[in-house]
Amino acid sequence: MIVPYTCPDCSNVIQVELKGLRQKSATCPSCGKETALPDDLGICPGVIIGNGYKLDRKIGESHLGDIFVANKEDTGQMVRIEILSGSVTSDEESVTRFLQEIELMSSLKHDNLLSAIEAGQDSDTYFLVTAYETGSSLQETLQNQQTVGEKDALQYLITIAEVLHYTWNERKLLHRDLKPQNIFITKNNVAKLTGFGIAKSSEGQSLGLTGVGFTIGTPEYMSPEQIRASEDLDFRSDLYALGVVMYEALVGELPFVEDAPILLMQKHMDEIPVPVKERNSAISDGCSALIDKMLAKNPEDRYQSWQELIDEAKNVLATGGKSAATPSDNSGSGASGAGVSKSPGAMIGIAVAVVVFVIIILLVIKGSG
């Protein structure tokens, strides 16, 4: 790893190559004087890491470290580099998670998944290089404009659901950390997924890093069963989390807000969120019902496959929100419930109409007799 450092004697920029143990000093090639290096000399714009990647600017943070845009010096290719924070490199589990993300990203290939290019260790720094596209995270989008329109939100939902459908079919993989920071929106307004560092396979592969009774994830987006640290999590837990993300995108706020994580998680387990449409009147009935169903407390009351969700979201998008299943359509049977359920008032009205119709028929028959 090559780190730029300004000589305090002649102001010449020294390119210090760090190898293994942290160097204490360097000799300036301009003035010839040896100078002590600061203890905090490390990752910053201008650093060259790995196989010739020069860090250009920091663009964000992940659950494990900082994310930079970099240039491959020999080709000029722009890439995205995630670097494991120095404060957690001594934590064996954090390093394991980072290496796990490298393994996963290298094995998964999907158009809407930020693909891995290479990964490794340089000096005492671990890094992951992935493809870079111009755009911003969904989190940044929400910070700039508070909400996104229904059509955009549904398209993001469909795209991310298709990625998760692929990872579930390929590896029975649970993302477990769906949130706006991990959804990247390209300049062409296409959503792409990243952030698989705490993913877990439901098939018992060497991806799970949590012990029994230990909850991991981001509390604001966790499903009730993930909060309870259930051992039999499946794709429906990620489906719930994606519902929370879409709720936030449409409303501009999370369904539940609490300063204390334990109180927040309790709300996810016990409280029914206010429907999206009641918090944003611009949202259609169909879209609001779709989000309601994604956020059902019982996994059996949510969509029973990624494809079912994708089909319903496409239907809502195509009909302008006139078609969607509601939570009341599901009682654990797993049916798709493609039509909007009838309210009790509507059912009474239908019953009255039937009675009136029967009376009219009987009167007609009596009069003709």
SSE layout and pairings?
Elements (H helix, E strand, L loop, with lengths): L1 E5 L6 E5 L7 E3 L6 E3 L11 E2 L3 E9 L3 E8 L5 E7 L7 H16 L8 E7 L2 E7 L3 E3 H8 L4 H22 L1 E2 L8 E4 L4 E3 L6 E2 L22 H4 L7 H17 L9 H10 L5 H4 L5 H10 L11 H14 L24 H25 L1
Antiparallel strand pairs: 1-2, 3-4, 5-6, 6-7, 7-8, 8-10, 9-10, 11-13, 12-15, 13-14
Helix pairs in contact: 3-5, 3-9
Give an account of the 3D structure.
- The model is unreliable at 204-215 and 326-365 (pLDDT under 50).
- The longest helix is centred in the C-terminal third of the chain and has 25 residues, at 344-368.
- The chain folds into two domains: 2-131, Phosphorylase Kinase, domain 1 (2-Layer Sandwich); 135-329, Transferase(Phosphotransferase) domain 1 (Transferase(Phosphotransferase), domain 1).
- A hairpin with a 3-residue loop joins β5 (48-49) and β6 (53-61).
- With 369 residues, the chain is of the alpha+beta class.
- The chain has ten helices and 15 strands.
- α3 runs antiparallel to α5 (235-251) and α3 runs antiparallel to α9.
- The protein is 35% helix and 19% strand.
- It has helices spanning 92-107, 138-145, 150-171, 224-227, 235-251, 261-270, 276-279, 285-294, 306-319, 344-368; strands at 2-6, 13-17, 25-27, 34-36, 48-49, 53-61, 65-72, 78-84, 116-122, 125-131, 135-137, 173-174, 183-186, 191-193, 200-201.
- The strands form five sheets. It has a six-stranded antiparallel β-sheet with strand order 5-6-7-8-10-9, covered by helices on one side.
